[in-house]
Amino acid sequence: MTTDRELDCAILIPTRNREVLLSETLAKLRAADLSHLPLWLYDDASDDPNMVRRVADARWPDARIVRQDTCHGQAFGRNTLLRQCNCRFAILLDDDQYFVRVGNLFDYMDGKKTTRACAVLFFQCRDRTDGRLDVPETFHAGKTSSFMAGAVMFDVGAVLEVGGYRDYWGYGYEEPELAMRLYARGYHVWYEPDIMVEHNHVLTGDADRDDSQYDYYYARNSILLSSLNMPLWLGLPAGLFRSFRRSLYVLRNPIPKLKGTLSGIKMTFTKWKDRSPMPTRQAFAWMAFRKKTLQQTVS
Fold it and tell me: Containing domain of residue 56, as a range?
């Protein structure tokens, strides 16, 4: 439904080498009647430097495009757009995610349903291929410990206050890592199932995933997630356990996984100045809260 409210909100989408998916996503967003919101696209060094501009000209001519000639990853791209969009709120989507149910989104945009402590509004997400929901229908609106990066609306000021995503993160566990830092500063993530995006999850052709890079990042970031945000005596062992456990899920790419694990240990100390460890009591409270919400939200 079109709204004539003055909404201080932008749509932010990072992309790389996925012309067909991006084009369809922008068409779906226009069909959802969101074309009155400013759109920002981050081109993470696509091989064709004109690709994003070509898609935007066809689908969203007034979109603003920020391009990097070196690939930095989605975390860096989202930070870049958050710092430039100059809006109170920002809807963050991946280039293969779009709204299928706007629900009460506009109420959150104009502040009717938000409080200053709500830094992240997390939407329900449905897989286009098989209809699977990311969050079970039994989990109702309320606080949660993480979110999906392509299905959220941020309070830009709150997220930037804690530093946004870590620029060097790449991808993999970037959502719970940011959620931990928000929690430590008194903010929270709110889940709203009335709003739904669809994930056009394709891993073939130009949407193919680099499994070696994927396994490296997850092995590394499994460690950094805890070691940078908890007391070292607790965070480093917890991170190592998570990294080794995840490496056993799928028996592939043992060398990239080993390199990622070693890099996670090394970066715990080379990024020492970036550490923002919670007090021990708060860290244990976070672990209990996260365990509780994971049990409720895992199908």
Answer: 9-205
Instruction: Indicate if 201 and 76 belong to the same structural domain.
Output: yes
Domain boundary among 205, 225, 252: 205
Residue-wise pLDDT for 82-126, tens only, equals 999 999 999 999 999 999 999 999 988 876 666 668 999 999 999
Integer Cα distance of 275 and 153 in angstroms: 26
pTM: 0.92
Domain identity same for 188 and 125? yes
Strands 64-68 and 39-44: parallel
Q: Could you tell me the CATH number of the domain that includes residue 194?
A: 3.90.550.10
CA distance 65 to 49: 11
